[in-house]
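# nightly structure sweep
# worker-07 picked up a monomer target from the shared queue
# config: single-sequence mode, recycle default, output format = C-alpha cells
# input follows
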Amino acid sequence: MGRWTLLLSCALAPALLVGCATTSRANPFEEGGAAQVIRISVTNRQFNDARVSAIRPGGRTTLGTVGGNQSQSFRIPWSANDRLELRVDLLAGGRYTTRPMTVNPGEEIELFILNPLYRSYVRR
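# output follows
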C-alpha cells in the first residue's frame, strides 16, 4: 500500500500545484466584472480656462480645469444607468450647463466648449 500511496501522491501533486497557481481574474463580460466608470473628454475652444463639473442626482463632482484651447480627459466612477449634466464655469466669467442625458457605465462623452459659450455641445 505504500507504493500506491506514493504513486497516487506523485500523480496528484502536479494537479494540486496547477490549481493553486491559477489566479482568479474578473471576467469583463460578467455584470460588475469591469471597472464601472465613464470617460469625459473635454475640448475647450475658448481662450479662457474652464472648470468642468459633473452633476448627477447624488450631487456635483468637480472634474478639473481645462486650459484655453486645450483638451483633457476625465474618468469618474459610474455604477448605474443614471442622469448626467456637465457644467462649465469659465474662470473669466460665464456659465453653461448641458441638458440632462442618461449615461451607462463604460460610455464616453465628449464636451466641446465653444465661443460664444451658449453654442457649446455634448456628443457621444
